[in-house]
Design a protein that fits this description.
Layout: E1 2-3, H1 4-20, H2 22-32, H3 37-55, H4 60-74, H5 79-93, E2 99-100, H6 102-120, H7 130-145, H8 150-166, H9 191-207
Antiparallel strand pairs: 1-2
Helix pairs in contact: 1-2, 1-3, 1-9, 2-3, 2-9, 3-4, 4-5, 5-6, 6-7, 7-8, 7-9, 8-9
Length: 208
């Protein structure tokens, strides 16, 4: 079970974690992209931080929808629409809820994956955030099916996201600016998969 308060705390902490990793994410993006991933996400989540007090008394779906709209309007590049769509799709399956059961979280993950796939037209192995998100979603679903409690299931999801992130290093990018580099995109961590891992790991820390 994850409460509405924990969701607020998670999003506040994400803003801090992205700020701490802003330069690192931008360095990753400089190797294979526009060198703006960390800068853009930092701008977006700082805006989210400012707006969270306005939605602190709302249900989880409304909170996530507000995050989505903020990211879409403030984050440039591909990551704004992708993260915006991720939060928007997730918000629709948890609308009206003050707390999330494991089943709600399975739906949350699946909706997030579907949103990113539809918006980015990416597949597993294309060297995108999906390479961290999809394994996390599958791991969480399997853990819940096996009877794991929320934190244990999230631990498996985050571990899968981290493995997926690391697995992007040898991949050749098929989407986004990185795809223009062809074979030269291999040998680098994907910045989107890295930021996705950081965001999920922050959720796990808030649930402990």
């Amino acid at each position: 079970m994850i409460t509405q308060t924990q969701i607020i705390q998670w999003l506040q902490s994400v803003a801090v974690v992205i700020e701490e990793n802003k330069d690192y994410l931008t360095e990753l993006d400089a190797a294979i992209g526009d060198a703006d991933h960390g800068i853009n996400l930092h701008r977006g989540f700082q805006k989210v931080l400012v707006q969270l007090p306005d939605v602190a008394d709302k249900d989880i779906g409304s909170i996530l929808k507000a995050v989505s709209m903020t990211l879409i309007s403030t984050v440039g590049g591909a990551s704004g629409p992708l993260y915006g769509t991720l939060f928007l799709r997730a918000s629709t399956v948890v609308a009206g809820k003050q707390e999330l059961t494991n089943e709600d979280l399975v739906a949350f993950f699946q909706a997030a994956v579907e949103g990113v796939v539809q918006r980015g037209k990416a597949q597993l192995g294309d060297k995108t955030m999906l390479d961290a998100l999809l394994p996390a979603s599958e791991a969480f679903k399997q853990a819940v099916a096996s009877g794991d409690a929320t934190v244990a299931a999230l631990e498996k999801a985050v571990a899968a996201a981290e493995t997926g992130m690391q697995n992007t290093i040898p991949l050749v990018a098929k989407k986004g600016r990185a795809s223009y580099l062809g074979e030269r995109s291999a040998g680098h961590l994907d910045p989107g998969a890295t930021s996705l891992y950081l965001i999920l790991n922050t959720l796990l820390r808030k649930c402990h």
